Amino acid sequence: MFMFIINYIAAILLFLIGLxxxxxxxxxxxxxxxxxxxxxxxxxxxxALGYRTGGxxxxxxxxxxxxxEITAVDPIVQALALTSIVIGVVTLAMALALVIQLAxxxxxxxxxxxxxxxx
Amino acid sequence: xxxxxxxxxxxxxxxxxFFVPVVRRISHSVRATICIAAMLLTLAFLLSMAGPILxxxxxxxxxxxxxxxxxxxxxxxxxxxxxxLLIAVVVAVVGLFSLVYSTVYMRDQSGRGSYYLLTMLLIAxxxxxxxxxxxxxxxVWLEVLSIAAFALTGFHVDxxxxxxxxFKYLVTNSVAAFFVVIGLILLYxxxxxxxxxxxxxxxxxxxxxxxxxxxxxGGYATKAALVPWHFWLPDAHAVAPSPTSALFSGALIKVxxxxxxxxxxxxxxxxxxxxxxxxxxxxAAATMLLGGLQMVQQSSIKRILAFSSVSQxxxxxxxxxxxxxLGVAAAAMHLIHHxxxxxALFMSAGMVxxxxxxxxxxxxxxxxxxxxxxxxxxxxxxxxxxxxxxxSGYISKTMLEEAALAGSFGWxxxxxxxxxxxxxxxxxxxxxxxxxxPAAASRRGVQEAPPFGxxxxxxxxxxxxxxxxxxxxxxxxxxxxxxxxxxxRDHYIAQVIEPSSLxxxxxxxxxxxxxxxxxxxHHWLLPAVVLIGGGxxxxxxxxxxxxxxxxxxLRPLQVVAYYxxxxxxxxxxxxxxxxxxxxxxxxxxxxxxxxLGWL
Lengths: 119, 599
Known about the structure:
The complex is a heterodimer.
Chain A: H1 2-24, H2 28-50, H3 75-106
Helix pairs in contact in A: 1-2, 2-3
Chain B: H1 2-19, H2 28-48, H3 50-54, E1 59-62, E2 77-80, H4 82-105, H5 112-131, H6 135-153, H7 160-191, H8 196-202, H9 207-224, H10 232-239, H11 242-267, H12 275-295, H13 301-322, H14 325-356, H15 372-385, H16 392-406, H17 410-436, H18 451-469, H19 472-487, H20 489-497, H21 525-542, H22 555-567, H23 572-596
Antiparallel strand pairs in B: 1-2
Helix pairs in contact in B: 1-2, 1-5, 2-4, 2-5, 4-5, 4-11, 4-14, 4-18, 4-19, 5-6, 5-11, 6-7, 7-9, 7-10, 7-23, 8-20, 9-11, 9-23, 10-11, 10-13, 11-13, 11-14, 12-13, 12-17, 13-14, 13-16, 13-17, 14-15, 14-16, 14-18, 14-19, 15-17, 15-18, 16-17, 16-18, 17-21
């Protein structure tokens, strides 16, 4: 039971650490790393959710006998995690492109000095 | 053919998005024409579905033919009901007009190829989101449209503020996307389903389910720009190219409200009279007031309009959170109204900037003779926005106030009136400073914008005027079916999952009320209050600050306004913190209320 629930605890902790780091960071690249940490928390949550004790990989060549002889982990959450990873990579690429432009304009990576828009 | 009709509105903009850069060598106008033709085709496909859907049907298309078996949906569906179709049509119309406007605005810009790609991608994402019937699929569309929106915000790469706004937009919305993902994971954990109807059928008020609903509302509230999730909006709207601002205000934030409506009406039976409803109503009131107060303090033209969008989203949320059929119909009507009018305002403001380089109130003045049609558009759209009779805003606001007074939330009607007065003052101040006030600089040589720069805005305003004079058909045939689609939850579930069980479904008859008559002057009390209060406030605002008389009872409002302005600190970490705080509060409210039975 403990081994099962530790995944969820780790996911929540990872998310909160990421959020703390994101709020406290004084460097935009570090902010993105923390965003990545929060993202990993969601992957962990997804994969932990699909876990079945003693389950195998859900690869079948023909429809399995559902009488309960085979236990497989949930394939849907794995597909969701893969999709999320792809989306995360795209967002990260976009963010890094923006960071390059930010550095070009402001000559710094400190978000506290990027406050032209306020009020 | 029927299936193709459902999927075409997503496929056409998506296909066009990637086709446009291929024809890079052809001239700008050819590229724009291709996009406009694609949008017309999309709109035609959407409207061809309108007949059966407005009669209460939900059209469903299962990707790859993965039909649900024994009430279990594994496939991904497009489920189109009146609520989704309404949003999709609004997106398509605003997108079409914004593209026509782009032919002028983008004429001399570099990087036009990627502009059309991104705009079409944004439109495809918005329509895909509105038509999709699957929670995870919706999330994917959300990311598609977000990526396009980030890039469009930072389109003027040489403007440091544009890049700054795009970065803030990206960070806050990524965090919001995580909230949505965690919400949908929790729902999957509880119900084992991802299809909206399937989740709705199996939803139970367990802690996990309640937290999930709180997270989803919090995540979508960032898209819908509700206070305190709204910080990205004024930044992004103000620096994006004007056709993009029109698309953001007219279409993008509507999709957030659409998703909130889906979350609180379709996924769960509406929690009437509980803590969750109270929280949503308070959010609506805060959004209306803060948006209005911020609006009268700004000096950048597009920032004024952006904050007005925030306050108008408060009205839409108010309609939804009232939870009555009339309230939801009013929300749908207000959504249509705001999409028309705010796009027109952004387009006019864009033309002023494009012709004269004026982006700030302090530089403006004395333009009404030089740009008469732009002035006219802005004047009419401004009157419509503040809810004057014979405009669409009067219809939707009267419906909203009736809905609020019919429940036990009469005070919200007065908050709405106060916010309308602030809106009036904000727009009147803008028009005064930009068009009417004496200017320091000479206006010789300033010309009216070209036809395609003026016509889209004028046409949208004309539609708003027509809607205000002849509201019955649209209110009864469009807004009410959209409200009923949300309200009749069992109907939606049965049509998507088990169409055979539909015949046995008994439902309460909901009485469709007529729209308020614009010529019936008995309802003119509230617009009159708005006009007098807003007018007085405008007079106070447009005088130089030293010449302003001190009014003691205005003092509390001034204090709130001052701290409201300080609150927008410009620090992205603050914004993320407020986003998370708001979501956490919603989550806890839902959780605690569920435990104590106060839902």
